Fold this protein.
Amino acid sequence: MKRLTILVIILAVFAAFCLGQYGSGVSPPKIIRLSEPRLTGPLSLEQALARRRSVRRFTNRGLDLTQIGQLAWAGQGITEKQRGFRTAPSAGAIYPMKLYFATGEGLFIYNPYKHSLEAIINQDIRGRLAAAALGQRPVANAACDIIITGSERKLAYKYRNKAGRYMLLEAGHIAQNIQLQAVSLELASVTIGAFNVMSVSSVCGLPADLEPLYIICVGYPTGQTTIEKAEKEKETRKTDSAKAKRAVLIIASGNFRDEELFETKRELEKANVETVIASTKTAVLKGMLGNRAEATILVNDITVDDYDAIIFIGGSGASQYFDSRVALDIARQAKDKQKVLAAICIAPTVLANAGVLDGVRATSFLSERGKLKKAGATYTGAAVEQDGLIITGSGPKAATKFGKAITDALADR
Ligand SMILES: Cc1cc2nc3c(=O)[nH]c(=O)nc-3n(C[C@H](O)[C@H](O)[C@H](O)COP(=O)(O)O)c2cc1C
């Protein structure tokens, strides 16, 4: 009988404890293990810093556990297991801060040691949280509100009257980590400092020891993400600047090198660069491998001002331009007029003979190395070499890379 009374008392105390801890209408804690955080991302730190902005309008799309886990890790994740050091610094490594996550599913507390979430309330409290934050809509509409809480008492053991200040500094570190991580996850966020401390504590059922310090609303922004926007702008800039550009490909009237013409041409056209083939005959001409291409203008008729890029294609026939007064003059004009000037395989010798490679880093088919050096070039032997607006290629195998280098040089102008 006495044993039964003791058992009943223990059960009653336990039940009272559970009620006090989790409130009414709430089930016991559910533990959610989070996946390992990723340690690489699509943005540099500098890009994340440059793109961070407070965003207050979110779509109603929720976050998945991988995203929540990553945000939790950014705020308080353990990065040095032996001593338990974390992503954010802490005065005396005391770690007095705790992160709560309010989502559509309820309220969860982050456990950095297990990298897991523990359910505290199984109800959506974001509306009530918004009311406690002076009715701020982002708090109600965000997929997730991260509440940074801290215990001044824990710091006060060591830091006494500095404890309050240190706690706020720690909240700042954590918030910044989380906001930058959100950018890197293509999510938007805003930090909320304006709220009623007592109300937030009560809505979240915080223990007396923990003070809510900051709320970070995170979600999908309405409209394009900052990363999508930046990528799109970059792409548009690239296509725009490559658009309306013209390149003339100068080939030998016989025995031009097929891949060097066709792959270079393909790369240029992929980037919307208009191409024209020039030679000493306007006719269908044959490459070393038997492929045919039609030259539609004469080298004699080339007006350098009409083009953004002048390209000498190689192949054994290209030697016909080595001493061509017209070809050498075109190369010189191209350099003077700051056009993209390119040559591949044996054709860099045209540039060397025109005197435009003096002091320039260049490459070519190996047979031409001596001629380039003699003309003052720094011969690198690379597949493709670029020095300012002069691009040289070593031969057929480097043709695609050569074409890309020309395209990029045109896009940058
Ligand atoms: C301590 C602090 C408290 C803030 N509180 C709120 C807030 O309650 N509500 C809000 O919409 N923004 C809040 N903000 C966000 C600022 O309004 C925002 O950082 C500022 O307008 C600059 O814009 P940016 O973050 O895009 O650079 C807070 C920012 C800080 C640093």
Remarks:
- The radius of gyration is 34 Å.
